[in-house]
Each structure stands twice: as C-alpha cells, then as structure tokens.
C-alpha cells in the first residue's frame, strides 16, 4: 500500500525543505523557520481531511474511464489541481477583485500579504455560493438516480431514487436552498450570493452538456472514449469546487500565498495517491457504502459553504464532519 504514496512522500519532503527555506529567508530565525514548516504541515493535513471525499468521487468516475484517460487525469489533471487551483486561482481572484495585473498580484502577495488576504476574504461570499451550488448538484445527482439500486440510508435514498423521474428535481432543491440562505443576507450581498449560486448551478449543467457532446462525438469517430474528455472536464471542475473551501480557509492559518501553495500542494498529492489506490485495488466495489458516505459528505460540504456566507465555520469542523460520514459508511460496509 505504501508504494501508492511514494510520490506523495517525495513531494512532502521537497515541500518541507522549501517551507524551511522560505521560513529562513523571511524570518531569519530558527523559531520562525519551524513555525512556517509547522503551518505547511497543518495545511497539508487540512487539505487531506477536506478532500478525502474528493478522492472517492474521483475514483468513482475514473473507474469508468479508459486507461489512457485515467493516466491523463492523474498526470495533467493533478498539475492543474496543484498549480492551477492552489497558486493561479488565488492570484486570479485578486486580479479580478482589485482590478490589477497578474504581476502586481504576485508582488502584492509577496510584499503586502495582509492586503492580499483581505481581498481574498472579501471575495469569499461569491466563491462560497458558487462552490456550494456546484457541489450540491454533484451530491444530489448521485442520489436522484432512478437506476441506483444500492441504498445505505434506505428510507431516504429509496425515496430520492423514486423522485428522480421528476425532471429537474435536483435543480429545484439547489435553488430552494440558495434562496433560503440568501434571505439571511442583507443589501447588495443578496444579489451577489444568488447570482454566484446560479453560476455554480449553470456551470454544473454546462459541464454535463459539453462533456456529453465531447464524448458522443468521440464515439461517433470510432474511438469509443467512454468517460473521456467529458469526464476529464467534469473532474477538473469538481476538483476546483472542492478546493475553494480549502484555499480560502487556508488564509486563516497563513497570509503568505507561497506557504499556502506548499501546504495545499502536499495535501493534493496525497489525494492523488488515494485516488489511484481506490481505483486499482477496487476498494469502492469491496466497500459498497463508501461512495454513499462521500456523496453525503459532499452535500454536507455544500451546505457548509452556503452557511459560511452568514457565519464563520472552522475548516476543522468541516473536515471532521466529512471524515465522520465516510467513517460511518466504511463501518456499515464492513458490517
């Protein structure tokens, strides 16, 4: 089993060394260096705890993909996840929110981390609404499936599978939840929140449509790429949505963009290793309710993201809640 984590261990060692070097050049003291290394380690653990359900959902999608597309996602996909979401995404938010150039955003992150963190915090409302709506659609789509015949919480999931015949039921649920939380806000925040939630909903639907068109066009060409381009695109947007909460929450531990990138990048490599292990060892087939726990955790995370527009919820609680749901599903699978 340890062989699956060899790259994660290597990236961890490199990340710790890079964190120590960064700590030394920024603080010049041994205590400051150890403090930076500790923050990088905590961020890595935070990312793993928040993204374990992401690994299960990735594995659920990857098991239906052809080997070449699995390999592409686990190589190019992880590069996009680590460098795109952990470095480029926070910079892009500041570029748009502060109306400055990309290089100016990098300089701001290095020279004025407090101002950078403040801009990121101010952008949290639309990000939470967008990510919450997208992830809720992901979770509900798993349960509102009339072909689903394995149920963990039987009394609830059987009803959800039954109501899946109603067209657009998931969309209606997401809109109702978004409307409910928007009523707890005041002033211009209401429009910002609801517009971002609508965009999250539309993004999910567009990814589904575009993915279906891409895969069907490939099949018509005779490549039979079941779960190819479309699934790759879906997984990338899904990973981005999972990353929103971790990237924003990381600024509560450190205001240094580069420290955050190191910590979250280490965590992302462990998520990749867990995904590979789940696919190759057939863990999802062996533990039949593990997927259910992951998708319940996704719905819980989406509600938390919506709720964070009103009240702050520590990321530790979010991570522990998701881990508890997955742990319960694992225990039920063993029974």
UniProtKB/TrEMBL annotation:
Top-level taxon of origin: Bacteria
Descriptive protein name: DUF475 domain-containing protein
Organism: Vannielia litorea
Keywords: Membrane, Transmembrane, Transmembrane helix
InterPro entries tied to this protein: DUF475
TM regions (residue ranges): 7-25, 31-52, 73-98, 123-144, 164-185, 191-214, 221-242, 248-271, 292-310, 316-334
